[in-house]
Amino acid sequence: MMDNFTPGPFAEELAAAGVPDHLHAWLGRYGIGALVVKMGIRFLEMSPERTVATMPVAGNTQVAGILHGGAHVVLAETLGSFAASMHAGESRHAVGIEVSAAHHRSIAAGMVTGTCTAIHLGGTLATHEIVMTDDQAGAFRPPESRT
Questions:
Q1: Fewest CB atoms within 10 A around its CB: which of 2, 66, 80, 91?
Q2: Residue 55 and residue 75 in one domain
Q3: 77 included as an active-site residue
Q4: DSSP-assigned states of every residue in 80-131
Q5: pLDDT tens for each residue of 45-89
Q6: Which of 40, 30, 55, 38 is nearest to 115 (CA)?
Q7: Considering its fold, how many domains does the chain have in total?
Q8: Are the CB atoms for 11 and 20 separated by under 8 Å?
Q9: Where is the Thioesterase domain (predicted)?
Q10: Are residues 1 and 54 in the same domain?
Q11: Could you tell me the pTM of the whole model?
């Protein structure tokens, strides 16, 4: 049995990933997942309404030297899953049922930031929008929509 005072086996992993202290008791027995660690994802904010994380381009590229499209989706899925899990609460388990992505342009270096914003937080279903931005150009939007 885990108490709120004894660090779980993943305490260092949670701290390194930027998970806020108040979530350590809950996530300490599970960690953040091997893929999240491998991708270098680091959380900046975590709540059901808004979850924000960064991911480096380096180490997550495709053969053409740009960020792999699947890496974008891993970051998005991670954000949505954590936000939905926080909404569900510690006694429930949330799983994704759908993910879709549109890639409007590429990035070859730096950091990508994903911002997950709740659109609907219901009793059994949560829907989030995740927008990716980078250090240089801001949001990943089609060129004609940039201002």
A1: 91
A2: yes
A3: yes
A4: HHHHHHHHH-TTS------------S---SSEEEEEEEEEEE-SS-EEEEEE
A5: 999 999 999 999 999 999 999 999 999 999 999 999 999 999 998
A6: 55
A7: 2
A8: no
A9: 65-136
A10: no
A11: 0.85
Q: How far from each other are the two terminal CA atoms of the chain, in whole angstroms? A: 53
Place of tokens 């992505």: 101
Q: Are residues 64 and 21 in the same domain?
A: no
- Whether 26 and 51 share a structural domain: no
Tokens of 69: 């499209």
Report the CATH number at residue 130: 3.10.129.10
Q: For residue 40, give both structure tokens.
A: 């270098």
What's the CA gap between 76 and 112, in Å, rounded?
A: 11
Task: For residue 76, give the nearest of 45, 119, 115 by alpha carbon.
Answer: 115
Q: Which one of the listed residues 45, 77, 90, 129 is annotated catalytic?
A: 77
